[in-house]
Amino acid sequence: xxxxxxxxxxxxxxxxxxxxxxxxxxxxxxxxxxxxxxxxxxxxxxxxxxxxxxxxxxxxxxxxxxxxxxxxxxxxxxxxxxxxxxxxxxxxxxxxxxxxxxxxxxxxxxxxxxxxxxxxxxxxxxxxxxxxxxxxxxxxxxxxxxxxxxxxxxxxxxxxxxxxxxxxxxxxxxxxxxxxxxxxxxxxxxxxxxxxxxxxxxxxxxxxxxxxxxxxxxxxxxxxxxxxxxxxxxxxxxxxxxxxxxxxxxxxxxxxxxxxxxxxxxxxxxxxxxxxxxxxxxxxxxxxxxxxxxxxxxxxxxxxxxxxxxxxxxxxxxxxxxxxxxxxxxxxxxxxxxxxxxxxxxxxxxxxxxxxxxxxxxxxxxxxxxxxxxxxxxxxxxxxxxxxxxxxxxxxxxxxxxxxxxxxxxxxxxxxxxxxxxxxxxxxxxxxxxxxxxxxxxxxxxxxxxxxxxxxxxxxxxxxxxxxxxxxxxxxxxxxxxxxxxxxxxxxxxxxxxxxxxxxxxxxxxxxxxxxxxxxxxxxxxxxxxxxxxxxxxxxxxxxxxxxxxxxxxxxxxxxxxxxxxxxxxxxxxxxxxxxxxxxxxxxxxxxxxxxxxxxxxxxxxxxxxxxxxxxxxxxxxxxxxxxxxxxxxxxxxxxxxxxxxxxxxxxxxxxxxxxxxxxxxxxxxxxxxxxxxxxxxxxxxxxxxxxxxxxxxxxxxxxxxxxxxxxxxxxxxxxxxxxxxxxxxxxxxxxxxxxxxxxxxxxxxxxxxxxxxxxxxxxxxxxxxxxxxxxxxxxxxxxxxxxxxxxxxxxxxxxxxxxxxxxxxxxxxxxxxxxxxxxxxxxxxxxxxxxxxxxxxxxxxxxxxxxxxxxxxxxxxx
Length: 863
Hints:
Elements: E1 7-12, E2 20-24, E3 29-33, H1 40-58, H2 62-66, E4 78-80, E5 85-88, H3 101-104, H4 107-118, H5 135-143, E6 150-156, H6 166-178, E7 183-186, E8 189-192, H7 193-198, E9 208-216, H8 223-236, E10 240-246, E11 253-258, E12 295-299, E13 306-310, H9 321-324, E14 327-330, E15 333-336, H10 337-342, H11 345-353, H12 362-381, H13 398-412, E16 418-422, H14 430-445, E17 449-453, H15 457-462, E18 465-470, E19 479-484, H16 486-489, H17 498-502, E20 521-527, E21 535-540, E22 544-548, H18 555-568, E23 581-583, E24 591-594, H19 607-611, H20 613-622, H21 625-630, E25 654-657, E26 665-668, H22 679-682, E27 685-686, E28 689-690, H23 691-695, H24 699-706, H25 710-721, H26 738-751, E29 764-768, H27 776-791, E30 795-799, H28 803-808, E31 811-816, E32 825-830, H29 832-838, H30 844-852
Parallel strand pairs: 3-17, 3-18, 5-16, 16-17, 22-30, 22-31, 24-29, 29-30
Antiparallel strand pairs: 1-2, 1-4, 6-9, 6-10, 7-8, 7-9, 10-11, 12-13, 14-15, 18-19, 20-21, 20-23, 25-26, 27-28, 31-32
């Protein structure tokens, strides 16, 4: 395929796309930007990636396709120049409990090969290093006996060939006789097989060996005959060979030689090691107690409640004793597989650099080592050196997961591929984003096309090509406003992103308002979870405070693992498991956590249910005259219970049709036409509209109707203020973009704050990267909304990397200086201008650059 031929899309109408035509240059770093829900993911994932996957599956045989879910053809007139595509989405939830970072990057697979090939085995009970002999070393040991020594070479018969039945023993002996062997050593006595077969057997022997040869050793003259005889012996028993040696004028002695790893003191014999013996997904490798899970269930205080604890047998390593007892030699020390997997990647890389490979295994294992080092180097270059390979994939953030998968792709060395990444900068400090951009450019330079859905300013400025979508979200989006370079977009009048890059549009700032003296405040002392080094967190009341720092520096640990458990603790003043004390919690009436978890898993979940709007609507309809006449209660207007919902679709509004070997088709319910309720329920109306008609309204439309109802209006206003006025109240949660879902949760909390607190103590809001998935104009709306909360006296703590949010904050707490063991302390704290001016924290250089091109109401701006 001609690399200069662009990826051409004509007439794309998937979902909200408005019949767009676009050409994307190959071998380029392309960024799709625009408001949340404007069609970026629809174009990249639901159109381009879906078509690439569909074409790949079409190449398979019809028999294979029948067993697979077939994707629908995207709604587009034509797509040409499309290379094979890989989509690296943010989907940590798709990984099972056995999947680790090492699995995602394939490093564990290479380690398993290395341990099976060059691992040093030990007795799992005693720890003694096990030894084995080769056929050459056995022959050398036998030939070292004095000349004239009588040698009887034996091949021990495995006990599995023998049983207590006379007929079975004789059958075994007849088989050896047919192979040409005439004698056996029967419990230490050499006997003719014919004599044994003609007599009666009282019992089976405890030990039986076939006499292979009898040789009088005469130095090197006997070497050739001995080698041939040993080959014969190993055909019978490849694991063991024995000999009766009788030197001249000396008693006979019996010696055994093993070609398997064995402890001569205990008799323990190691099985032939394969990569499966080091896999916790295989019965040959996993811990029998936890079956490779690393945890086991334990009864808790409740009758039925259970919780998991680290497996006491394997101590969480997931592997059985044999796998744990094998080591690799790295420099002057030996390390086991669990020890390697638990190391931070920075330490792991240093350890593997000193891996010692036996000379005869050098050609085979050198490639394995190179693959491990290449992938580890990419992970470290992407700022993930603080993670360990044993980190469960389900605990990785979306940004960490994408970078891990990206490192695997960089290590794979593919070219001519279209890589689609969904907001890979989420959760990244600007320093980490800089590393990511360099990695993406390396991937591009390998002959690939990189298509990134992104809002981050750093990445937008470094892209080869920009596609700006909008002008709004949902039905107001779906158009291409601009396509070109980052310099050209700044002068494009139709672009919604260009003015933010050029500086003609500015973020709001409420940090110019003087900080009022507030009696509220929070002091968490001695936080020491994970990598935290006895951190004291001082949170001033009535402020927007941003907690910043590199990825892995301890921000989430400080908030999620220390502060929030301390706030929930029944005795917050006392010491907790990972903190010393908490003061000031009583000055807040409540605290609310807004994290990045989905707003609902049920197919009946909608913005109306997530915000509590439906809980206001249901009692309203239950008190209407027709409802009271019929005896309808509020539950009648719920889609989660029988009675008022449509039972054909179970209140979801759609039916999934099984198309057998084609992909299933989702269609509106033919009974309720997508309205979710049955006919009788829809007969109840308020202001001329049924409950389904009201929920089908957009937020902007609904606010006009519900303005007289304060609780409903508060929810709708909060959704509108945060930029979701276009969204319908009955939209399935599964169709919300990441940015939309996050803002629904923020709006839900904003709506709970009354306009007049009535003397109640202020609230504490804890937000986990609230700018996730937001465009510049949506970040501006968020800052304005949070400013209203701050001005009302409430306290807001944000874990944040977005420089616009940091610049607008009252105070910053910057953690670092690095990640993992190199982080865990508060490097600097103060106002954004103070942080930027002092220039002692990892965020300061990036913040100073941000402040220098923004007109903020500060007395001075750093250069």
